[in-house]
Amino acid sequence: MIECAGLQKIYQMGNVGVRALDGVSLTIGRGEFVGIMGASGSGKSTLLHMLGLLDVPTSGEITLDGIDVNTLNDYEKTMFRLYKLGYVFQDYALVPELTVAENVFLPAMLRSDRTDEEYTTATFDILDRIGLSDRRWHLPKELSGGEQQRVAIARAIVNRPDILFADEPCANLDTENSRRVLDLFEEINREMHQTIVMVSHEDWHKKYFDRIIRLRDGKIVEDNHALS
Amino acid sequence: MGKKELKVALFLAWRSLRRGSRSSAILTILIVGMCFTNMIFLPSLFAGIGQTIKTQIVDYEVGNVLVSPQAGEQYITDLDATLDLINSMPGVERATPHYSKGATLKYRQRILGSSIRAIRPTDEKSVSPIHTKMIAGSYLGESDTGEIIIGKIIAGDATVSQEDEFYSSLGGVRVGDSITVEFGNGYTKDYRVKGIYSTGWTSSDNSALITWSDMEIVEGESLDKAEYITIKTKPGYSEKFVKDMLMSYGVSPQVHTTDDLLSKAIGSVLQSFDIINMVSLIVSIIITTVVLFIVITIKTINSRKQIGILRAIGVQKEVIMHNYGFQVIILALFGIVLGIAIALLLALYLAYNPIVTPEWSAYMYLTPMDLVSNSLILLASAIVAGYVPAYQVSREEIQSSMRA
């Protein structure tokens, strides 16, 4: 499902090159719930952005679903993200002028294989599932942080992506809301066999992951199946 | 870029405008509306002035087409035959001759130099609307003799002293009064004032008219000649067509349309109007473009992170660009509608309350084509102003947008 080899990312800060990723190689199988953990600055978000086609590596190869994504042009990458990938960001990243339902079905609107009726039904089903169907016509600002993040998750899975990437989705939430969000991820992973790659620095999140990849200074220092 | 992508771009644009900052949207619409009004106001006012002048010149001076004597000649001779020929031409409603003679007008203690114009009242009525501008008495009849009609300026006002008059006058002549006219050839006659007219056109209101037969008495001969002939064209026929027809029949080599005469008489004035119009148009376009550019630039700068997120979730660059493009188009359209409404209200106001001067009265001469062409110009500048920042921001790397 996800393969990368010799992944390097060097950020140029003036004359100095900062190595954010230093030869990362890994393989993630379908249906895995993977946690990428590490201290701040260890390169975990950078790795997620490389795998999620939000940034390009300085060197190395990434293969998603058998496709060498380095060969894709900008438009193809956009289409790849639309059809195959889903994202949940730290700060929810909802469009403030769109209602909950509109935020959720926005990515589905762009897909040529979905009719208006199909994506509307899918949106309402997902909102029902995450317990926010009664808030579907509310604006994001009328929701709590936890509710907003659940909407962001709904948006990420409305297109039934092959891989769901989550970049510290609980960073702005209290423990109770974090638990609800993580429970939702776990439920999606178990019931829909959704591949999830999630970045986190909270130790207590470990119990949700099938597998933990720990980074330090841009290198993998631990890769195990924490719960198995 | 397919239909679906355009639909999403329009969806995002409309939602952003409906649920975004209302005051910013209203302010932008107001500015665009004002710029549109500015673009349309001065040119249409100048066009109105030009139109008024043209109408008055046509109505009270030269008609639609003017036939003058051949070069070196003082009169058009063989008048009746010439008039018959002209009146039989396609496109000619009616032709009427004019013959003027310098004279001194006397009324009580007042003496005024003027030019007395002879007309054929029946024909004149078909060409000039002076008969509809009588403010006292009545118009000349075809067989009237010893009667004269005079313009409001010549008649004057008895309540205004001679020193305070802007134009010299006879100091308050009324219908029925008798004025003495001493013609340049020494012929003197008392005329009863049959009517007083007021056209609003200075040179017309400063004139006096007698019948053709009266002028024949003054000249002591049958007048088969005229100084010039004015022609009213039939609706649907252009002045140029009638002029070409007259020239092809050899009526006279000196045939002029109103436009020919206007370009000679006030060509430089109209050219100045054009320059002012152009400056006003360019300034309006620049203001609109800059305002919309700033509005969209601020919007895109404030939304950089959101743009990054949208791109991350699979929204194409073009959708984002069109989103802002549509926003600016919608704002511009509302602004244009507002501008059209303001312009029409101003035009309506000025139609009932024209700016009046001694020489002309100004109203807004506004055609649907003016509204359409200015709308398109403004829309085009709005599109440029909106798409440039939208294009720039949509090209930014996802990561740098998201970090904003």
Structure description:
The complex is a heterodimer of chains A (228) and B (404). With 228 residues, chain A is α/β, with parallel strands linked by helices. Chain A has one domain: 3-Layer(aba) Sandwich (Rossmann fold). Helix content of chain A is 32%, strand content 29%. In chain A, the strands form 2 sheets. A 6-stranded mixed β-sheet of chain A has the order 6-7-8-3-9-10. Chain A has a 4-stranded antiparallel β-sheet with strand order 2-1-4-5. The longest helix of chain A has 18 residues, at 175-192. Chain A is globular and about 50 Å long. The two termini of chain A are 20 Å apart. Chain B has 2 domains: 3-57 and 266-402, no CATH class; 69-253, no CATH class. Helix content of chain B is 55%, strand content 18%. Chain B has 13 helices and 12 strands. In chain B, the strands form 2 sheets. A 6-stranded mixed beta barrel of chain B has the order 2-3-8-5-7-6. In chain B, strands 11-12 form a two-stranded antiparallel sheet. The longest helix of chain B has 45 residues, at 258-302. Chain B is elongated, with a radius of gyration of 31 Å. Chain A binds chain B through residues 49, 52, 54-55, 74-75, 78-79, 81-83, 85-87, 89, 93, 95-98, 102, 106-107, 109-110, 112, 139, 155-156, 159, and chain B through 2, 4-5, 7-8, 11-12, 15-16, 18-20, 305-306, 309-317, 319, 397-399, 402.
